[in-house]
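Let's do one together. I've listed all components of the complex below, 673 residues spread over two lines.
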Amino acid sequence: MKFFPELKKSFVIALWFMLLTFPVLVIRVNTIENIVVWRWINLAVIGSAAFVLSFLWQLYWRRKSAAAPVSVAQTSALTRRMSDPKFYRPFLIVIAALTLVFPFVASHYQINIMTTALIYVMLGLGLNIEVGLAGLLDLGYVAFYAVGAYSYALLNYHFGLGFWTLLPVGALLAAFFGILVGFPVLRLRGDYLAIVTLAFAEILRLVLENWNAFSFGPSGISNIPRPGFFGIDLTLEQSAVYMYFLLVALCVLTIFVIHRIQHSRIGRAWVALREDELACQAMGIDKTRAKLAAFALGATWAGMAGVLFAAKTTFINPASFTFLESAMILAIVVLGGMGSIVGVIIAALAIILLPEYLRVLGDYRMILFGAALILMMIFRPRGLITPAGKTYEFRCSGKPAAPEKRLP
Amino acid sequence: MTPLLEVKNLTMAFGGIKALDSVDLHIEPGQIAALIGPNGAGKTTLFNCLTGIYTPTSGDIFLNAPGGKARRLNGLKINAITALGVARTFQNIRLFGGMTVLENVMIGRHPRSSAGILGAIFRPPATRREEQDIVDKSYALLESMGLSESANELASNLPYGAQRRLEIARALATEPRVLLLDEPAAGMNPQETNELEGLLTRLQAAHELSILLIEHDMKLVMNLAENIFVLDYGEEIARGAPQEIRNNPAVIKAYLGEEDDAEAQ
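Okay, and this is what the predicted structure of the assembly comes out as:
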C-alpha cells in the first residue's frame, strides 16, 4: 500500500496523543457528587484529529522532500534578500518613517508597549553578544539588568543624581558585574556555564529581596524620576513619547555599536571562540580577555536597559528580575537567530508584542504563544534569520579588487 | 648554529604514566624535521607541551629567536606561545566550521594586529588600514595555498584535503618561525600527499620556516625531513638523517615488534 508507512506512523502518534491527554481531557472528578465522569467522546476527537493532522503533515513532508532536495548550507531566501542593499534600503526608510510617526498616531497604551518592546530589543542585542557571538550560554542575564535598574534607583534615592548621569554609571556598574561573574566561570562551557550564571542571578535577586536596609526588599523602590527633558515638566503622555524616542535613539546606538564590533577583529575572535576554544587559543587569541570582554560588553547593554526600565516604570522591585526574564531574553536571541542583529530585533518585537495583541483571545493567548514558539523552532531551528558569512573585498599582488561576492 | 627550538629533558607525566620521558629535541632554523613513532608514543603530547596546551612536568622548552635571547616556553599560555612564533595544526582538523575560509585565515592574523573595542566602534583610519591589511594578507595566503576560489565558502563545506591545507594557511597567518604539523597527510590520497610535499617545500623556502611534522606516511617523511626523531612509549629511541633511521634496529623493532616476542607467545 502506498501510504502504509505514513498511516502506521499517524496511528502511533494518535495513540500517543490519546494517552497523553487522557488524564486531563477524559477523566473528570466531580468532587461534589463524588463520581468520576469518563468523557470518552473527547478521547475519540483527540485521536482522530491527531491521526488526520499527522497524516497530512507527513504527506506534506513527503511531497516536499521529493520535490526539491534542500542543501543544509543553503541560506534562506529571507537571509539573502536581507543582505541586498536594493532590497533593504527602501525597507529601512519605511521602517524609519513608521518609527517616527508611530507615537503621534498610536495610543498611550501602545506607545508604552512599544517602549517595553524596545527595552527588550536592547536586552536581546546585548545577550546576543554573549550567546550568539561568543557562545557563552548565560542564563542569568537578568542580573545585569537588575544591576542597572537598582543602580539608577538607589543612587538617585541616596544622592539625588539624575538620569543622564546615572545612565553611563549603570552601564559601567553592570559591566563591572559582568567581569565579576566572568572571572570564576572562565573555565566553564555550555551547560555548566549556564548553571553558574543562573545561580548568580538567583543570588542577586535573593539579596535584593532580603537585604531590606540596602534595597528596601520586596516592597521595592518607588517614585523613581523619569528622565529629564531640559528641565521642562512633561505630562504623562509627553513623557511616554519622550521615553519612546529615547529608546529608539539608544536602540539605534546599540545596533550601530554591535554591528561594528561584530565585524571587527574582536567580533571575529568571539565567533572563533564559539566555534572551537582550543583552536582559537592556538591562533593567538587570549581566551580570558575575549570572554571577559564579551561578558562586560553584554552586561553594559543590560545595565543601560535596566536604567531605562527603572526610569520608565518609576518603580522597581526584585519581582521584575526573575529567571523568567532571563529565559525570555534568551528565547529572543535563539528565536531571532544566534548572532543576527535583524533577527534578534524582529524576535524581541514579536515576543513582547504578540502576547499583548493576543489579549483579545483571553485565556488562550499563552497557549497560542507557546504553539507559535514551537512551530518556529520546528520550521526555522536556527532562528528567524541565519547570519550570513560576511564577504570581504580583497586586493592582492597588484590585481584590482575582486568583485564582492555574496554567499549563495 | 643555535637551534631555533630546543627541547631539553622534557618529561610529561599524567599521574603515574609518563607520556614523555626525558625527551630531547632540537630544530635548526629553516629545517624540516619529523617526529615519528608508533601510535601512543607521545608525539601529539609533545606537540601539546610545545604549544602550551599541557604544562610539562619537568624539563625545558626554549625558543631562540635569531639574534635575540632564548625564551622559555614552559608554562606560557597557548596564545602567548603563538604570539612568540610557534604555530600548529591539529591531528583532527579543528577549523572554525561556521566561518568562511577567508575568515578562518583572518583569525590567524589576530596576534599580528591590535585593534580593540574602541577601534572597532569608531574605526579610525589606522584600524581601517589594519583591517584591510588583514584581509589582503589572508587572501594572499589563500592564493598561495590554492584555496582562493573558495574564499567565501564555509570552511566546513571544503573537501578534506582542502581543509588540511586551510589549517596550514591559518597557522601561517600567525607568522610563525616554527610550524608544527600534526599528521598533515592523514586521510589524503597519494596524489594529494605528493602535492602536500611540494607545498611544504615551497612554504619552507618562501617563509624561512622551520617545520616539525608528525607523520605516518614514511615516504613523505623520508622525502621531506632532514632530521628525524623517533619516539616510543614516551622515550626517544633514535634520531638522525632519514637513511640512518631507516636502518636503525631500534626503530624497526618499535614499529614491527621483536621476533623473540612473537615466538615466546
